[in-house]
């Protein structure tokens, strides 16, 4: 008996589950497919029915016009720089804080940890005005630093990493101390390598959050040369509000790096999000 027949015998609803999963996948993929078909239509094309968007003729001239006449690649670069630096700094700070809360003993440790937990209860929108005033008083508005620094405060990352570091045996820590490891070497050489899956989860969530962040860059950036994708694309779309073609083309170009990244790091992304959901 084949493996598929055995699986069907064990779970009689498996074909239904597969069919539902397939239909759900098509529903999620349809907007992306429609976007790429629309981006290939000649400028000024009119559609009398939704199916007309999928019919020829097609052209790549829209992509040439967008690449030569817009700053989409600059927006992608800015988003990548901000997301990469935000992720690195967030991982560094949250992992050190989590190690301190998990494996070090100091006064008011529990009270400070409760303070981090309380940070999850404050909506991000409630911090926008004080954050804007602080960054403005530091002269960091309309700079990369002004985009990056507010994003590195991540109490959720501290909580996820602490919950994982708590699982590292204390006997291992004591043994390393007997071998002459100081606190930094314990953090860097012992605990952090054991927490690679947790670090990956926090890194993925941080980068995705930074890549998709719209509100703070929209408020903090004035210069078009510093626009990130979530800010640049709406600005571009507002100039072409009466046509689908060019806005869909710029959205398609902006989606290509994300799609490639997902295909390359699919396993890590799924494991990271699943891990964060279990531990959080």
UniProtKB/TrEMBL annotation:
InterPro entries xref list: MetI-like, MetI-like_sf
Domain spans labelled ABC transmembrane type-1: 76-265
Cellular-component GO terms for this entry: plasma membrane
Single Gene Ontology BP annotation: transmembrane transport
Keyword set, alphabetical order: Cell membrane, Membrane, Transmembrane, Transmembrane helix, Transport
Domain of life: Bacteria
Membrane-crossing residue ranges in chain numbering: 20-40, 75-99, 111-132, 144-165, 186-208, 245-265
Membrane topology: Multi-pass membrane protein
Location of this chain's protein in the cell: Cell membrane
PROSITE patterns xrefs: ABC_TM1
Family: Belongs to the binding-protein-dependent transport system permease family.
Name of the molecule in the record: Sugar ABC transporter permease
Species annotation: Shouchella clausii (strain KSM-K16) (Alkalihalobacillus clausii)
Native organism taxonomy: Bacteria, Bacillati, Bacillota, Bacilli, Bacillales
């Amino acid at each position: 008996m084949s493996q598929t027949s055995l699986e069907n015998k064990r779970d009689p609803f498996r074909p239904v589950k597969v069919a539902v999963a397939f239909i759900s996948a098509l529903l999620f993929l349809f907007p992306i497919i429609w976007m790429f078909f629309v981006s290939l239509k000649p400028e000024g094309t009119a559609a009398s029915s939704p199916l007309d968007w999928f019919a020829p003729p097609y052209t790549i001239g829209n992509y040439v016009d967008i690449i030569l006449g817009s700053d989409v690649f600059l927006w992608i670069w800015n988003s990548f720089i901000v997301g990469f630096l935000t992720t690195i700094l967030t991982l560094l700070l949250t992992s050190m804080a989590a190690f301190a809360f998990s494996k070090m003993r100091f006064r008011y440790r529990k009270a400070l940890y409760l303070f981090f937990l309380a940070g999850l209860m404050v909506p991000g929108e409630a911090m926008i005005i004080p954050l804007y005033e602080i960054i403005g008083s530091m002269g960091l508005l309309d700079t990369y630093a002004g985009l990056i620094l507010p994003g590195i405060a991540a109490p959720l990352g501290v909580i996820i990493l602490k919950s994982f570091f708590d699982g590292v045996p204390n006997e291992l820590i004591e043994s390393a101390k007997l071998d002459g490891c100081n606190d930094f070497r314990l953090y860097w050489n012992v605990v952090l390598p054991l927490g690679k899956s947790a670090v990956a989860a926090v890194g993925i969530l941080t980068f995705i959050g930074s890549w998709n962040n719209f509100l703070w860059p929209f408020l903090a950036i004035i210069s078009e040369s510093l626009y990130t994708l979530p800010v640049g694309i709406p600005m571009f779309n507002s100039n072409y509000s009466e046509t689908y073609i060019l806005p869909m083309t710029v959205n398609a170009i902006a989606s290509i790096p994300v799609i490639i990244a997902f295909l390359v790091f699919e396993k890590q992304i799924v494991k990271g999000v699943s891990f964060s959901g279990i531990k959080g």
